[in-house]
Amino acid sequence: MNNSNVCILILSTKAESYRCFITAIENSWYKDAIDRGFKVFFYSGGHLENCLYSHNEIRVAEDDSIENCYRKFVSAKNILLSEYPDIKLIYRTNLSSYIDIPVLIKYIQKCSFDKDSYHGYLGKANLLSQIFSQNKFLYSFFKYFFFGPKVLFFSGAGFFIGINLCNGLSLDDSKKYLIDDVEIGRQILKFRRHDSEYERIYITDSFSKITKNELDSLVADSLLFHYKFKTSNRYDDAEYISKFSDLKYRYNFLTV
């Protein structure tokens, strides 16, 4: 699959407080992705119409809330595919992520993704807790007491989905959907599986540095390309992303 057949969709928002993340990505890994032939779009909701707004932005009329992320994704991919019918694979990520594009390319080649692929960092959700997500008591009860059916899904921070599966996702105004990555996992029951384990480094306030050899092994052997930032200071996270293309900075940040 050529890079030109792959689109990186970045879950975004029109909230001004997240503008620093968009700028950080545009000034770091976004440039590398464009230079290497990928199509890359930020997408957000709460707009007057569904449209391809600029060279790197898709706007949809769906509500911009977290709870409405599934509808935003389906609406955005519909606009994308109407404008670029040659797209075969979408890699969905979010504003908190730094993507190492050269390693991403190697990972795509290794996995041999196609239009029926669905792959990422595996998660498990309690279906009843997701259904009652607006009720804090019921959400916590079902989540922590492990009562009820489970949904397997790939984390929305970074997952691959082929266009055949994208086109099978429902979008019905009369239905209430779960949050997007869980809803996608609930709907997609049959897909092409990939044995490669999706690795990511998740940087929070409790992140512990690793050795240089450990990091080198993750990159060389597991093709680690995804670094997700979610500390208590979101402005710092945006700053980290903006600097992460500098390998010296990256090693100093991650390793002892």
Write the layout of secondary structure elements.
Layout: E1 6-11, H1 19-26, H2 29-35, E2 39-44, E3 51-54, E4 57-59, H3 69-83, E5 89-94, E6 97-99, H4 101-111, E7 118-126, H5 127-131, H6 136-144, E8 150-162, H7 163-166, H8 180-187, E9 200-203, H9 212-221, E10 226-229, H10 234-243, H11 247-254
Parallel strand pairs: 1-2, 1-5, 2-4, 9-10
Antiparallel strand pairs: 3-4, 5-8, 6-10, 7-8
Helix pairs in contact: 1-10, 3-8
**Average of pLDDT:** 92
Order of H and E elements:
EHHEEEHEEHEHHEHHEHEHH
Please state the oligomeric state of the protein chains shown: single chain
Structural class: alpha/beta
The largest beta-sheet arranges its strands as 3-4-2-1-5-8-7
* Regions with little confidence, pLDDT below 50 for 5+ residues: none
Strands, count: 10
Radius of gyration: 18 Å
Largest sheet: 7 strands, mixed
The DSSP helix count reads 11
Describe this structure as you would to a colleague.
There is one protein chain. With 256 residues, the protein is of the alpha/beta class. The chain has eleven helices and ten strands. The strands form two sheets. It has a seven-stranded mixed beta sheet with strand order 3-4-2-1-5-8-7. A three-stranded mixed beta sheet has the order 6-10-9. Helix 9 links the parallel strand 9 and strand 10. Helix 1 packs parallel to helix 10 and helix 3 packs across helix 8. The chain is globular. The termini are far apart. The mean pLDDT is 92.
